Amino acid sequence: MVFGCPENNSNGSYNVYIDGKMLQSKVDFSAKAVYFYKTAPLTKGYHYLSLEATSESELQFTTILLNKNSQSTGISSAKNPEFSFAVYYGRNTGHGHRDTLNLHLFAFNISLAPDLGYPEYADSVDMHRRWVSTTISHNTVIVNDTEQLKSVIGKTEHYDKNAYVQLSDISANVYDETSEYRRTTAMITANDSLAYYVDFFRVTGGSSHIYSFHGGEAESVETEGLNLKKQADESGNYIGTYESPYLDWGTVTDSRMAWFKNVDRDADPGNTFKVVWNLVDTYDMSKGISEKHGLKMEMTMFGDFTEVALADGIPPRNKVNNPSSVRYMMAKKTGRNLSSLFTSVIQAYSDQIIVVDSEPVKVTTENGKNADAHKVAALKVTLSTGRVDYIINSTDNSTTYTVDGLFDFCGFFGVYSVLGDKVMTYAHDATLIGKNTVQNRVNGTIVSLTKKLQLENTIVIKPANDVDVSQLTHKILSGNSLNGQNPVYEIISAKKLEDGNIELNIGSVSLINSYASATDTKNYVYNLKEGDTCYIPLTLVAGKSDAFFFPLYTSINAIILSHDISRNAKKDSLVGFLYAVDTQRTSAFDEIAYTFSLDESFGDGSLFEIRNGNELYLVKDLPDSTTYLLRLTAQSPEDTIAYTEEKSIHRMGRSESETHSIYSFRLKPNGIVPVQDSVNPPQEEKDNFNPLWYFILASGVVLIIAGAAVFWIIKKKKKA
User: Fold this and answer.
1) What is the per-residue pLDDT across 585-621, written as a single tens digit (0 to 9) for each?
2) What's the CA dihedral at 506, 510, 516, 517 to 10 degrees?
3) Contact, 463 vs 444, CB < 8 A?
4) Is 137 left (phi over 0), alpha (psi -120 to 50) or beta?
5) For residue 568, what pLDDT band results from cuts at 50, 70 and 90?
6) Quick one: what percent of the chain has pLDDT higher than 90?
7) DSSP state of 116
8) CATH of domain 81-354
9) What is the pLDDT of residue 119?
């Protein structure tokens, strides 16, 4: 950890604490950069940094550097314990790749569809510029066989996360020929440990669309529903490239497609096919799952295709442990003024398959006519648990549709799950799903916003329609783009003001885009403007979740006890404070009411008690021991299960106890870091003196005095 301090603006020394535990004492902050020679292991998640001034001092920070991955980027992602995905929509120029709307998938602790990685050589040679950084080498769509245009950031159309469905919907302007280039991806929970993905990629414009997708290193790749023909010579040996049978691998062309080899093609594919990658755990990250049961990634794709091909792409060849090749699937459509919807269901599994069947289902309008197949699509997905999910995605959220004759839907995204006679529904930015009428969104006008650089930022809106503000937590506010940016902000918390306006807490994310100019550093340009309109898409989940195998999930990954036990601690002594390390927490100002508990039947639990929420006390005098074993649990209100940890607590020695202080850290509303609120100074140690020793000492004194008196009397007699 490194603290950056403005030169000549900081002085004095501080004791530095992490989660209430001292990291290093009397650290001199007068230097421009403060490094630590003592370290503390930190789990992933939110930790408290606290500073105690030990002298007259003044302190300013410019940076606190914890690791190289501190900076944000344009990635929309969603997570659960085993499965996650991300769609990249950030800068695709400079050191970036032309990979807008590239899809990343993760499961079993490995990347299922990894990027090709760092280039062989970071220069302008053909392998890098004409392959590794190109559009077609990534999991996205190529239009008219050309590279994407330069782009700084795409637009977040929708984003949502909960235990049932996690959703990302991103559009981008990266081709002059297209009026629509948009990817909608969702991860749907199947049971307490597994999930699957659905992907809807829409492209309108141009004459050729190629959906490119590849898995990681694989022992083999199998297909169903395809009649693949090997691109081979008379002897049966592979020839040419995906570009042409007559071009050698690596030939320089504008399309970059001569970097694929070992090509198999189906020139007349059906409307449904399946590709299965039998994956290799290249970097041994799955903790033995792949070796024990095997690991598969399966994609089922639906649509009307001109051609489907499989081919080998070659990752950089001078990187240790890189696979020699990865297998790509490319689904191609051609035609004039082309409009494409690439629809797929993707699952990863080891010993337990998730999706046993998937198929498109009929969608009709209220007058019984078939719906526009580009604007709206619906899938029926049957799970191994017996549950059947109906998934619908519509870019026309004002029309009511009937899905498979089963239920009605009006909105952007919905999931209708059936298990026996039970039904559960998810609706995002929708007004109707099944029998449930839903509020789709909050429309409003921006009244005010935070205009200074600070760690707590808010937006105040005037809502055009009424809403329960508790529904707004972890939803996103979308505004009008003023500077070519993506003004979308996750809402940490919300409260209704007396005037009817709503104050949205967006945490540490600043609303400042830049200085007003290179010479004006006192004024700023903002990403939002007062008076502009905005909206917040809403979500409704209805039904009994216990029947639908929600994930047993907690975002907490550690419980910290601020102090060990003082040597003189006795019944009703405060031991220390409990902290939960939360991987989903994003701000020091999140008011999360963690619930801590103690298993009194385990180890030495009967000696302790939790009071006032997070304070650990002794309830009995301690037996003569140096270590005590506890089982503690912590739970966030958003988690479905509690996090449990067994902790050994050390009893301090004499020297440790002499300097022992109990700190209670609280957050100031405008503070940069948690600050010391109260201190219990170390108490002078009282000797545990046995009364018997008083008797022996007193007796000894009496004997000494008596002896002296006898000696004086004898001496006196001799003189006499």
Assistant:
1) 766 556 677 899 999 998 899 999 999 888 999 999 8
2) -150
3) yes
4) alpha
5) confident
6) 56
7) -
8) 2.70.98.70
9) 79
> Regarding the domain with residue range 556-680, which homologous superfamily does it belong to in the CATH classification?
Cadherins (2.60.40.60)
The residues, any chain, with a CB within 8 Å of residue 579's CB and separated by 6 or more, are 19, 20, 47, 48, 559, 560, 561, 562, 614
Mean pLDDT, range 347-370, rounded to an integer: 93
CB atoms within 10 A of CB 509: 15
Whole-angstrom distance, CA of residue 134 vs CA of residue 128? 8
Q: What does the pLDDT read at residue 80? A: 42
Can you read off the two tokens belonging to residue 121?
């050589």
Sheet architecture: strand order including 627-635: 595-598, 627-635, 643-650
Which two structure tokens, joined as six digits, stand for 714?
């004898």
β-partners of residue 340 are 203
* Per-residue tokens: 420: 């026996």
Every domain of the chain and the residues it spans: 2-65, 81-354, 361-438, 442-542, 556-680, 692-720
**Using CA atoms, how far apart are residues 513 and 413, in angstroms rounded to an integer?**
31
CATH number attached to the domain at 442-542 = 2.40.10
Give me the mean pLDDT over the 311-319 stretch.
89
Closest alpha carbon to 426 in 443, 409, 441, 442: 409
- Strand ordering across the sheet containing 476-478: 488-490, 476-478, 533-537, 441-449, 457-463, 502-507, 493-496
Place of tokens 């909206």: 535
